[in-house]
Amino acid sequence: MRPFTATSIMLATLGYLAFASHLAHASLWQEEAVAQSVSQAPVLDSEIEQQLDDMLNSNLSEEEMRSRMVALEQTLDARAPAMSRVRLMSYIALSNAYLGEVELAYQQLDDAQQLALKSALPDALAEVAGTRILVKTLENKLTEAYTLLNTAIVPLESAQLPRVRYFVHNLIASVYTAKNKPERAFEHLIAAAQAVDETNDERTPIRRTHLSLRVAAIDTQQRRYEQALQRLDEATQAVQQAGLEAMFIPEIEFQRAYVYSMMEEYDRAFEIYKDLESQIKDDPTWVALESTVLNNLGDLAIRTERFESGTEILQQALAVAEAQNDVITEQMIRFNLGFIQVHLDNFDVGLNAMQEVVEQARDTWLDSEFEPLLGEFAEALTMAGRHQQANQVLLEQRGLREEIFNTNLQKNVTELQNLYDSQDKAQQIELLERQNDLNAQQLENERQRQLILILGVVVALLLSTLVFYLYRAARRSNLALQSANAKLADQSIRDPLTGLLNRRAMQQELQRQEAHPKARSDAMVLIDIDHFKRINDHHGHAAGDEVIKAVAQRLIDVCRDNDKVIRWGGEEFLIYLTETSHDALPRFVLRLLQQIASKPVTTENGKQIDITCTAGFISYPFADLNQQQMDWEATLQLVDKALYAGKVHGRNQAWGIVSLNVPYEQAHKVLDTDLARAIEDNYVSAVTLHGPQRA
After folding, report:
1. Which residues pair with 685 in a beta bridge?
2. DSSP SS3 for 682
3. Upstream peptide bond of 3 is cis (omega within 30 degrees of 0)
4. Which of 322, 461, 478, 593 has the most CB within a 10 Å radius?
5. What does the alpha-carbon distance between residue 248 and residue 250 come to, in Å, rounded to a whole number?
6. In angstroms, what is the C-alpha Rg of the chain?
7. Given the DSSP bridges, would you call strands 613-620 and 572-577 parallel, antiparallel or unpaired?
8. 2: which DSSP letter?
9. Nearest by Cα to 643 from 634, 632, 653
């Protein structure tokens, strides 16, 4: 089910915001300029400002608005106030971005940035940073934006114009909301509201309503559904009093329907969507929302197993998406129509339609969107009994998931450092280092004075005492620095959600073992929470986090102190067992399945979520093979194949590779590509353990 996205950028400039990155190289200059200009109030050209406000409040198309702004820019000269010129240039850049001319937008922002830096006005610097933020969001580069938040915060601290402060604070709040940091988002939403309180013009009620809807969206994200509905009711009353129904009511009702869907009150959501369908059908302002509304109606029909109704609605949505040339929505609708056919046991028709969409999406969708599509396709194949093909799709999904992880690991270096090394800790370490250097220098100075200023025993004793205290202070600083570094080193190998060791810790341990081989009898167990995507979809990501933490604790309860429990990624866990016999391993894995499924997970709002898991397990080293024949990475790949075999054959079970029946040289090629064939041809022996069955 798709959430709503605003479509008109100029009207939504002050309500739907994001972040940019270009000012990083000039941050030091920026800070100096801000420091020199704290008390400098920006001078504005009232005529330019009024024309820009009039354009924002008009119903001009993006092309018309850009043409008027470019014409206005051509009438200006260097004597026009810098702040008004920067605002105009930023708006032109924004229009270019919305019309798909991103490079031209950045060129315009480069010019605006130079003007802002030359003026040394904090408001101008914040204006340019905010516009870059929005352009970065249009490029779908949220992580890059997130890592550079301070480039907007620095000038914002000294900005004076309420319009600019509202713009940038609201922008930062949107980034924190997208990054699931609601407490930080609320801080900036409050600051944005304070800026709005200082205004009293025709855009003031519009900005207030945007803030209310932003807060309601955060409440929904945090599963505070009653608060979200109350906020939407207040927004409805406010827009009615201000006469802004046409601008906001469809969006408010769309959010309300989405909240009811998340609360599983499908009938109420369905009624609202049906009303919206009739309201927006002939309204050019909201016509782009029609296909999304219809798609969500179809989604509700599937959720409630009304497949005939869902088919009819999705066919209607398909016609609208085709007319609007909305390719992505069209593909999703065709995929869902195919899924309905699979539910109706029309396997060939449904699977062919779904596979066609999968092939179309393979090279056009983002990897992060394509990966769950593969998971749903594999689920449909499993429903049709096509387990071998489902296994292939699951393997592709697994490979893509690993690729996404590695890509994000490279792209999100700064973000990961923020997770492991928060700004507060970084500042603390920097202060400790500075204090340590200062104390060490003072200690050295005092030692030199001892050699030069020995004027007597009394003076020497005083200096010695002073040196002692300085030395002790320096030592305390060094110890504090060592302690801080030790904590940070530990955090770098810990998963922040569960406190378990992370992938990096396990890789380091296995690489150390590989460098210093010795006889061992260890084992690996790879675990995946069953239907975790369904848990997130039905109960929200906060409940998903609760499930992950509960599973982590149950794994710790089962394992010994010398075993290692690792969060391998997402909903996957790896247990590395030391000194474990071949006979004891299956008994341990069976106890593990029973422990995880022993009782439901209770979420913060009191919901009970039943959970099971699927696992793969193997002894390490496998079949007494040496590292040259089968290292830990190859062993882990084999146990991963066993895990996916368990998922394909019904979940809530564990598959274990227990013996090698032929020489490894004969078996390894088949093991690398097709575990099912290796088992069928008796190259290896496998056992299947089933988890507890629920009533």
Report:
1. 659
2. coil
3. no
4. 593
5. 6
6. 30
7. unpaired
8. P
9. 653
Residue indicated by tokens 């995507």: 533
134-164 per-residue burial string, b: 16 or more CB within 10 A, e: under 16:
bbbbeeebbbbbbbbbebbebbbebbbbbbb
Residues 20, 23, 28, 30, CA torsion sign: negative
SS3 content of the chain, % helix, strand, coil (to 5): 70, 5, 25
d(CA 519, CA 158): 65
The b/e string for 395-419 (b: 16+ C-beta within 10 A; e otherwise) is bbbbebbeebeeeeeeebeebeebe
Whole-number Å distance between alpha carbons of 560 and 575: 11
- Token reading at 691: 């988890």
The identity of residue 242, as a single letter, is: A
Residue 501 bridge partners (DSSP): 494, 566
Q: Which of 334, 346, 342, 332 is nearest to 382 (CA)?
A: 342
Dihedral, 653, 655, 656, 662 alpha carbons, nearest 10? 160
| CB count in 10 Å sphere of residue 28 | 9
Q: What is the mean pLDDT of each run of 10 residues along the chain (695 residues)?
A: 34 30 32 40 86 83 89 88 92 89 91 91 90 81 73 86 90 77 79 86 84 83 82 88 83 88 86 81 70 82 83 86 81 88 90 91 71 85 90 85 53 36 39 51 68 68 70 68 59 83 84 76 94 90 92 93 90 92 92 93 89 95 86 90 91 94 89 88 93 76
Are 645 and 391 in contact by the 8 Å Cβ rule? The answer is: yes
Q: How many whole angstroms separate alpha carbon 211 and alpha carbon 191?
A: 11
Q: How many CA atoms lie within 13 A of 367 on its CB side?
A: 13
55 within 8 A of 92, measured Cβ to Cβ? no
CA 327 to chain centre: 24
Residues 6 or more apart whose Cβ sits within 8 Å of residue 352:
338
Q: How many CB atoms lie within 10 A of CB 183?
A: 9
- Rounded CA separation 67/86 (Å): 17
**412 in Cβ contact with 143 (< 8 Å):** yes
Q: Select from 197, 273, 264, 204 the least CA-distant residue to 239.
A: 204
β-bridge pairing 613-620 and 653-660:
parallel
* Dihedral angle, C-alpha 82, 87, 92, 97, nearest 10 °: 130
- Predicted TM-score (pTM) of the model is 0.49
Number of Cβ atoms within 10 Å of the Cβ of 511:
12
The Cα 131–Cα 108 span in angstroms is: 11
Strand partners, 523: 577, 619
Q: How far apart are CA 149 and CA 164, in angstroms?
A: 16
Work out the end-to-end distance of the chain between its first and last CA atoms, rounded to an integer number of angstroms: 30
